[in-house]
Amino acid sequence: MQYELLDKINSPKDIKTLSMSQLNKLAAEIRDFITHCVSCTGGHLASNLGAIELTIAMHYVFDFSTDKLLWDVGHQCYAHKILTGRRELFKKLRQKDGISGFPSPAESEYDQFTVGHAGTAIPTAIGLALAAEKIKTAEKIVAFVGDASIVNGLSFEALNNMGLVKRQLLVVLNDNSMAIDVSQGAIAQFLSKVRLSHTYEDLRKRTNRILEHLPLVGRKMEGALESFKRTLRMAITPNRLFESLNIPYFGPVDGHDINSLVQIFKAMSNLDRPAVLHVYTKKGKGFSPADDDPTRFHSTGPFKINGELESEKPTGKSFTAAFSDAIVKLAGENDEIIAITAAMSDGTGLTKFKQQFTSRYYDVGIAESVAVDIAAGQAKMGLKPFVCIYSTFLQRCFDQIFQEVALQNLPVVFCIDRAGLVGADGPTHHGLMDIGFLRMMPNMILIAPANGVELELAMRFAAESQGPVAIRYPKEEVDDSICPEVFSQPFELGRSVTVKNGKGKIAVIAYGSIVNEALKAAQSLKADNVDITVINARFAKPLDEKIISLLRADNSIITVEDHSAAGGFGSAVLEAAAAAGADTAKIRILGVGDKFVQPDKRAAQIAGLGIGVDGIAGAVKEIVEAH
Amino acid sequence: MQYELLDKINSPKDIKTLSMSQLNKLAAEIRDFITHCVSCTGGHLASNLGAIELTIAMHYVFDFSTDKLLWDVGHQCYAHKILTGRRELFKKLRQKDGISGFPSPAESEYDQFTVGHAGTAIPTAIGLALAAEKIKTAEKIVAFVGDASIVNGLSFEALNNMGLVKRQLLVVLNDNSMAIDVSQGAIAQFLSKVRLSHTYEDLRKRTNRILEHLPLVGRKMEGALESFKRTLRMAITPNRLFESLNIPYFGPVDGHDINSLVQIFKAMSNLDRPAVLHVYTKKGKGFSPADDDPTRFHSTGPFKINGELESEKPTGKSFTAAFSDAIVKLAGENDEIIAITAAMSDGTGLTKFKQQFTSRYYDVGIAESVAVDIAAGQAKMGLKPFVCIYSTFLQRCFDQIFQEVALQNLPVVFCIDRAGLVGADGPTHHGLMDIGFLRMMPNMILIAPANGVELELAMRFAAESQGPVAIRYPKEEVDDSICPEVFSQPFELGRSVTVKNGKGKIAVIAYGSIVNEALKAAQSLKADNVDITVINARFAKPLDEKIISLLRADNSIITVEDHSAAGGFGSAVLEAAAAAGADTAKIRILGVGDKFVQPDKRAAQIAGLGIGVDGIAGAVKEIVEAH
User: Fold this and answer.
1) Are A556 and A583 in contact (CB under 8 A)?
2) Mean pLDDT score of chain B, rounded to an integer?
3) Whether residue B267 has pLDDT greater than 90
4) CA-to-CA distance for B342 and B400, rounded, in angstroms?
5) Residue among B278, B281, B279 at smallest CA distance from B241
């Protein structure tokens, strides 16, 4: 790929000398470049294609080597990465030794925070602004937020506290009328109603009116704002949300019109108080397959440039797909089962359920906390809510799970997808803490199935439980062929299953699908005449007593988990052994150590962290050799 | 105390036959009863005195044996408890074998959720309403929310999702213009501006207008609402927040006028869609000392009925007070230190700091998540934010601490007050999980000081740290007289201090102020000729290597902590020992077991859970006897 303009852009300084028509050409080149690169690497396509003009205009007006640009969620920062010296590295997006798909200060001075969760841009921007006020520096601060993130409670808490800031702070609300799935909630409805009521011509007129009148405001906003508002009242859409929060609001304007954006950013950069600029963009703009189906191309694997997905090759079935089948099956049998997600119906595998059981499906938008509390209310009335949230986002609901579910002992089922290492998305998206934070809560039952068969059995067990149950499973394919004779046994509370009985005195106890690695290790060890026992723990809480009996019978135990080694499954085994006075010297814990795990293939991460087949076999050999 | 009416009220049914003037008399009696009881037991006074008429009116109109009443935060439910068969038990408020200060389904069918954290009433009410729709039951649902809770992100997420509900759901917004401290943020300012602009006469007129026009709406709201709004526009205060969220809003009305409230509740109970009723009340109403200083009487210890506080007797200095002194001292030395709280300036000991360093003090309202993110932004710019939040409320910021602080390795200091058992407030308020959830995060340093001297040293250490530090301390008095020679040594990363060297082979390693219990145990054991070593761990992360050396030198170790035994300090010791191949069979963990701890005196809780002097001495003896 060769590009006339883009190939010469090595830093944002290089775009400042371009003409408006060149900026537009640059946008087209970046669009082409992103589409080609993501077709090879996979990544977030649609949202990035929608934000190109905005990104160029921001970099044209601001100098983000000193000014601060904060991305919310962060998956719309590709053009920004490409413009800030990472064009070549972008070809290795989300790969080892390449660059992350999210902002990363380790990569560039142009990135402020490593992010991936929603709602953080405005509050961290407030923090930067308050500090800048205090240390008396003059950098401009821009928070770039999507319409899906603005409804998150964290964004709202920040907007409500915007009044703390008495200096410039620009919030760019990038409104593409679509969360990851279609946006939910009153704010989203309001935005989309406003959106539908405007023609392209309206947007252009409004831009002009804003530009005409901004000089009235000038730098000093406080006094000028009221008269400004009166003048503009007929020209700008009244936005009651921001008005009620007392935040000056401008827009909506066309987010693909670089020329206008540049003028507006220039004018707004001089305001001496926080303000919101509402911008319309089109998700997937300029790439017709993504245009047609932005959800499909929200986060994609590699694909052919005509829009056909490379990964349509017959690969295995994912845990997500197994969940998808199981919840539909269970819901067909049990009327009380309902499902709740936080803007992730596709990601969590609820699309089929949603189609088949529309009235039993709830999507609350990117608002994980409220999803849990709504489920608690539903469970209180006798329903059986399945709350479907990725492990990393479940961190947003720690307190709700504790107080509204565990403390009340309500039968809410947490289906925790993307538990463990997630591969390319990196440290913001790994789910390495769920066992640790959930097992501290009384009443919680924790399960990890080994494959798709077990996932369905676990869900069946959970549907019958009288208290809360959390089921974790990874971003991985299921292997339903292994050990059907043991893995098809129904779940019993706190009972593990023995996958392989060894003659030796070493047992590997694995929690979740990582048991497959343990089985492979057992096979490879057999060649060396080491015959180990392999146990599929199934439950992290309550733990099977059998594990302690093994210690008493003088076995060495190796625990394996796709989770932080601190506070996780192995730690639970240690605690139980210590409480029983068993010889915990014989326990070795394999898990993720005390560091953030960078993007790579999931299999490579597992191998690199020593929790794969080689790591397990190695740990066994160490024990054998020590004896 | 004898009361003409109250003494005959054994269930809410008993008030339904009373006349309006009797209801008013009942309110006066309840006011007197609450004031007298709380003067003996301590508790939340001001907020409860403000909610009496509202509570009576709700119980008069609704039947909460089948209808559902959800309290937000829950500390304003005293009148409700008194009316629902708990009048006698109320005299033992917040005491063992008495009743909790918060709603508790274990106590009464009239309570739905055990709560204590903000923002849960509306989302759980949505859950109940959705379930009622599905199972086709007709109970009325009422969520009772204070103005301080409405600004919490969870409340906002719920309001944004209110549209999911297509049946009756009444949100009563109890506006007393005051969070625990004075309310913060744009919404609070807006509410207080509206409040100031109304006279008592306005409220009365508005009530009449609402009552006149409600029949226009009748049961079917959807179609009628627009015309209703037009009719009422001049009579009701436009509330842009609720309008932007598309939620019908009525009010504000006088929250002490039982007669009007009864009529309005009757009318609004028939609406077939969610609606908000905004009610003005006066915190501390009717008890002049609380009237004058509601913050002082928000949550109080026992006091004399003239308002003088019983606990003014010369008791010791609390950790909170020690923190208060230390932060003022450190801030005087270091310009970069700033402090952030979430509506808890008094509770966390920031009042003095706020007075002395006004421009370096930030209160974000009951919005813990945003407090952390703002701090992250400030730290990013080189400031040194001290985030002051109770342990139990820090659970609301798990994900923000993880992503915006730990992952970025920013030097934010978390000052975690009320860590461990908190006594009378019970299970919603204990801080038993902070060690467990924080120690899973790379970059985090975890400290627990033993007393006030160590707290200051720990804060001094934290102020110099280049990454995040979390300091936990309990709701307890400090004993600065103990071991001044060791406890006054500056903190060094990952270094414990040995408080007492024993001749025997048993070491008790305590994390935090509980080391005092260990010292007392050591003294009592000496009488039995058992001479143990006592170590003050200081750090839970990183752990002192010395602890493992002790195991290697064939010592038995007992760890003690005021925290869940699962995932806590002891668990960290076990993990380190297992990783080092040390003999973990010699480790015994004392901590809080897998159950919710009911209200009682903190000392009694510690003793009862076996982490006090007797529990420690007992554990030592078991080891001695086993040998």
Assistant:
1) no
2) 90
3) no
4) 14
5) B278
A31 is catalytic: no
**Closest among A458, A519, A526, A523 to A493, alpha carbons compared:** A458
**Which pLDDT band holds residue B312 (cuts at 50, 70, 90)?**
very low
How is residue A283 written in tokens?
A: 């998700």
The interface predicted TM-score (ipTM) is 0.93
Nearest Cα neighbor of A353 from A415, A431, A279, A275 is A415
Instruction: Tell me the mean pLDDT in the region B138-150.
Output: 94
User: A575, B571: Cβ pair inside 8 Å?
Assistant: yes
Which amino acid, residue B92? K
Distances in Å between the Cα of B62 and the Cα atoms of A155, A271, B54 are: 36, 52, 12
Nearest in space to B391 (alpha carbons), one of B415, B369, B419 = B419
Whole-angstrom distance, CA of residue A324 vs CA of residue A298: 19
Given its phi and psi angles, is residue A383 left (phi above 0), alpha (psi -120 to 50 degrees) or beta? beta
pLDDT at A202: 74
Q: Which fold has domain A498-626?
A: Rossmann fold (3.40.50)
Q: Which residues from A are below 8 Å from B374, CB to CB?
A: 123-124, 126-127, 130, 158, 161, 164
Is A87 marked active-site? no
Output the pLDDT for position A576. Answer: 95
Backbone dihedral angles phi then psi of residue B371, each to the nearest 5 degrees: -60, -45
Name which residue leads in pLDDT, B583 or B219. B583
CATH for A319-472, options being 3.40.50.300, 3.10.20.30, 3.40.50.170, 3.40.50.970 = 3.40.50.970
Among A206, A380, A349, A345, CA closest to A279: A206
Provide the residue count of chain B: 627
Domain chopping of chain B, boundaries = 6-292, 319-472, 497-626
Same CATH topology for A6-292 and A319-472: the answer is: yes
Hey, what are B366's tokens?
């009951």
pLDDT tens for each residue of A422-474: 999 999 999 999 999 999 999 999 999 999 999 999 999 999 999 999 999 99
Degrees, nearest 5: CA angle B242-B248-B252 = 75
Contact A245 B338 (CB under 8 A): no
Give the SS3 label for residue A375: helix
Query: What is the C-alpha to C-alpha distance for residues A534 and B478, in angstroms, rounded to an integer?
Result: 50
Cβ neighbours of B369 in A, within 8 Å: 123, 153-154, 157
C-alpha separations of A243 from A229, A249, A275, A311, B42 in Å = 11, 7, 11, 47, 41
Q: Which residues contact A527 (CB under 8 A, 6 or more apart)?
A: none
Instruction: Please report which residue ranges of B175-257 form alpha helices under DSSP H.
Output: 185-196, 200-217, 221-232, 240-244
- State the smallest CA–CA distance between residue A161 and chain B in angstroms: 5
Instruction: Specify the pTM.
Output: 0.94
Active-site residue, A588 included: no
Amino acid at residue number A217: V
Choices 3.40.50.1970, 3.30.300.20, 3.30.1490.20, 3.40.50.920: CATH for B497-626: 3.40.50.920
Q: How far, CA to CA in Å, does B305 sit from each of A140, B31, B33, B298, B300?
A: 55, 12, 11, 15, 12
Nearest beta carbon to residue A373 from set B124, B160, B373: B124
Reported as type and span, the H/E element at residue A144 is strand A141-146
Task: DSSP for B381-416, please give it.
Answer: TT-EEEEEEEHHHHGGGHHHIIIIIITTT---EEEE
Sheet of strand B587-592: strand arrangement: B497-500, B533-536, B506-511, B556-564, B587-592
Q: Which of A157, A192, A430 to mutate to test the interface with B (most CBs of B within 10 A)?
A: A157
Topology of domain B6-292 in CATH is: Rossmann fold (3.40.50)
